Amino acid sequence: MMFARGSKRLAPQCSLALSKGSRYSTPRLHNYSTSQPPKPPKETRVPQLIRPYIAVAGLTAIISLGYYYTRNRPESLGDASQYLRPELIVQEAKTSKDLSKEENRESLSSQHVQVKRSWERPGLYAWGSNTGLVANPDSNEYVVKTPRRIPYFDGMVLRDVKLDQNFGAAITERGDLIQWGKGYSKTDYKPTKTLKGKDLVSLCITADRIIALSSSGNVYSLPASKFEQENGRKPFESSWIPFWRTRAELSYRPLQPQLGLGEKVTAISSGLEHVLLLTNSGRVFSAAVGSEHFPSRGQLGIPGLTWSNRPKGPFDSCHEVIALRGVPITNIATGDCHSLALDKAGRIFVFGDNTCGQLGLDINVGSPFVDSPQILPLDTLYPADVYDVQASGIAAGGTNSFFTVNAKRILSSMEIPTTVRDLGRVTSDVWSCGKGLFGALGTGKWTHVQSKPTKVKALSGLFEYSDTAQKVVPIGISRISVGATHAAAVLANFTNVSASKDGSQTDTNWGADVFWWGGNEFYQLGTGKRNNVASPMHIHPPADVVTREGQREESRFQVTPRRTVTLDGRKVSLEQRVECGRNVTAVYSGV
Fold this sequence. Notes:
CATH superfamily of the largest domain: Regulator of chromosome condensation 1/beta-lactamase-inhibitor protein II
Protein name: Mitochondrial protein Fmp25
GO cellular component, one term: mitochondrial inner membrane
Pfam families: RCC1, RCC1_2
Helix content: under 10%
Structural class: mainly beta
Shape: globular
Number of domains: 2
CATH topology of the largest domain: Methylamine Dehydrogenase, Chain H
Region (Disordered): 25-46
Distance between the termini: 47 Å
Oligomer: single chain
InterPro entries: MitoProcess-Associated, RCC1/BLIP-II, Reg_chr_condens
């Protein structure tokens, strides 16, 4: 609590207030102390003629209050807690006898409608900048202000989606690559299948290339441009005829790290000019993939590596990050020019550009680039010897980094177990660093440069009661997606997708909560407004999932967790995912 400067020995007056409309409201402490003592009130004289009447009225009030307390007082001090509970206000149910059970459910809950529509009509919503015809290939409008479906993807479930302001890329359920936008072709900019037959499972994009990973661990690097795909050098591919090879239909380059027996690439992540490859053995490789510039800000994790002294061979040769050899890495993330790696023990390694503090390390003005992985000291974020701190997730994009951390309360050498009430309690927190000029830090502040990780309070220290565990449990983060200047976080809150026909009309489904924040110049937050947002917030659901007037305005966008449903007569396991790109955002049905 902060006191006003120069305040004297005055007892601070405090009040508790809950944030209106917030599910996870927290008490706010207000301090009304001043630097000057209060002035005595002016004396008010009461005429003598009305003094008797005032006395009688006061006596009557005292007797009435005494009678009320006698009739309504609690029997014991233990029962007094009942009178301290906040009043529960129940909204009148919007049900009707003229509607069916399912229709009443839809009228009651837009969350139920969102879950139901995601099963019945899978597809892709997009919004934000449309200068490259990515958010809406069928319209020439400059921006798409709120979530809107791209008709081409109606009824489709996708393996992965990545968006740039100029081009979009997606992987179909069968593993084929789809591209669209002016960055693909200024004339044929509508969604088109390009790289086919590779059984792709995930992808990432650079400034002008697409990096795709197949189920067998092969990595393909191909230009985003249709012209370059058709006119560039095309590699030989094996054929179904023994000892016969043919030219590929498109130009692409295979990225081939030196792997051990049984080792294969399982994850990829890219910045503007580089890509990281993670193998099933926990090894990390990096490669240059920019068509115009060689990565020179340390993001490859190879000390001293430049264009002039690079090893002989292709410019996009894969290099093992030697500093991480022997460290079992489980996750990787990249921003425009920096890289993150998370190991099995919950440690975070950072390297690359740190000009905006995106590595979470102190900025060295004379040498702002870190070309060898360094451990991010997470223990300095919590009181010493009181918490066991382990990172559980990493995310990056643009000039920002995010870390999810599980902090377990432990006993310090100076404490007695019986005096520590929260011993063993685990709190899930989110920390951010980097550039906050557009609000991308999510801290409520517009900090230009933030080198020391700062807590995103709106996403930290959240709890809910678990019926399964019969106790209060922390609400973690399922996933954070980071674009160039904005971000979104999906909570790992309790969801319900088991409402059945046999249940009551109030038995509804609901999904996972999503928060959005950051730059909004191109309406990429989906609020319908253009102002940047420095604190995580909800947005309204798409207009096509509401069933009654006013339902959209009173509801929030949620995403559906994984569930096996029947789609076109076949069983499909799908979920909704959020993807933040460069000034564009998407929510799609993923397999």
